[in-house]
Specification:
By secondary structure, this protein is α/β, with parallel strands linked by helices. The protein folds into two domains: about 130 residues, Nucleotidyltransferase, domain 5, CATH 3.30.420.40; about 160 residues, ATPase, nucleotide binding domain (Nucleotidyltransferase, domain 5), CATH 3.30.420. Helix content is about 45%, strand content about 20%. The chain has twelve helices and ten strands. Strands 3-2-1-4-5 form a five-stranded mixed beta sheet, sandwiched between helices. Strand 4, helix 3 and strand 5 form a beta-alpha-beta unit. Helix 2 runs parallel beside helix 3 and helix 4 packs across helix 12.
């Protein structure tokens, strides 16, 4: 069988990334040009600045990705850009470049949903992983429990009704004075604290999430008591939010009977959350197993840390599976900032 090479292009937020992936699983190159130092001084991503920097970087990053993969444009089988969700201006840069490239080399254009890309990061890390499985999708813009039925077939079982989990981390970081990007900084400070502060949890009958309550509670506690131990506050926030994730993934396992769970998205790089999910796969307490109807043969998958955040390798992987399913897009494909899975 002929090897298939996909050229992934990712520009949905503040990373300009281009990658070459072989047969959906093997990364030949994955070049990431990050804008974090640029946006740090603004306390978050400024869309206009992000778009301008994508324009400046895209050609250079593409050239470097092809060089590192030791492959020519003629050998590429499909050009697979992210077309949503994300910042519309940023998306348009990568998508427009991909369309021009597709036209110039006369190779198919295959648009990729950014969320599908995050799921596919697991296929690169674990060559043996195949659907079906449950995915706990956690990023700056999304929090979802997804039943991955096949490589291109998904059912969203639960989603956030307000803030995404990454957004909540960023807002908490801003309030306690840690700056941007918030997730890694909260995670780091939490290691120095103890989770001794009680914070609220929002429960639903279904598998939906709500993080606005816990975020507001942290903000109010800090405002009322500026001298509060920030490490303890971060540790308590991280522990409570992780408990919410675990409660809902247990519900999903009961409903679907699935015992294979993959993490995805930038927040899946959080060390505390990763450990909590690994512990879920090693339940030893018979009473707990009985109560939750869960055996301890749960399999937990989580992408390499470098594949958790936005990168084109995961986009090229998802693009491969779309391509193999026969998906082709016309050159009038548009960016969809609020694209659903």
């Amino acid at each position: 069988m002929k090897d298939i090479y996909t050229l992934g292009i990712e520009s949905s937020c503040d990373e300009t990334s281009v990658a070459v992936v072989k047969n959906g699983r093997e990364i030949l190159s994955n070049v990431i040009d990050t804008q974090i130092p640029i946006h740090e001084k603004y306390g978050g991503v400024v869309p206009e600045i992000a778009s301008r920097n994508h324009i400046e970087a895209i050609s250079r990053v593409t050239k470097k990705a092809l060089e590192e993969a030791n492959i020519s444009l003629e050998q590429i089988d499909a050009v697979t850009p992210t077309y949503g969700p994300g910042l519309v201006g940023a998306l348009l840069v990568g998508l427009s470049y991909a369309k021009a490239l597709s036209f110039a080399i006369n190779k198919p254009l295959v648009g990729v949903n950014h969320i599908q890309g995050h799921i596919a990061a697991n296929y690169i890390t674990y060559k043996e992983l195949e659907p079906p499985f449950l995915c706990m999708m956690m990023s700056g813009g999304n929090t979802q429990i997804i039943h991955v039925k096949d490589y291109t077939e998904f059912e969203v079982l639960g989603k956030t009704r307000d803030d995404a989990i990454g957004e909540a981390f960023d807002k908490v970081a801003r309030v306690v004075g840690l700056g941007y990007p918030g997730g890694p900084k909260v995670d780091k400070l939490a290691k120095e604290g103890k989770p001794t502060i009680e914070l609220p949890k929002t429960h639903f009958e279904n598998m939906d999430f709500s993080f606005s309550g816990i975020k507001t509670a942290v903000i109010n506690l800090h405002h009322k008591n500026p001298e509060i131990n920030k490490a303890d506050l971060c540790a308590s926030f991280e522990k409570t939010i992780t408990e919410i994730l675990i409660e809902n993934i247990k519900k999903a396992m009961k409903v679907t009977g699935m015992k294979t769970i993959a993490l995805a998205g930038g927040v899946s790089a959080n060390i505390f959350i990763r450990k909590a999910f690994l512990d879920l796969g090693q339940i030893q307490d018979d009473k707990e197993k009985q109560e939750n109807q869960i055996q301890n043969d749960i399999k937990i998958y989580m992408p390499d840390l470098k594949l958790c955040t936005d990168n084109a390798g995961m986009i090229a992987s998802a693009g491969y599976y779309n391509y193999m399913q026969g998906k082709r897009d016309a050159l009038d494909l548009n960016a969809i900032p609020n694209l659903k899975l």
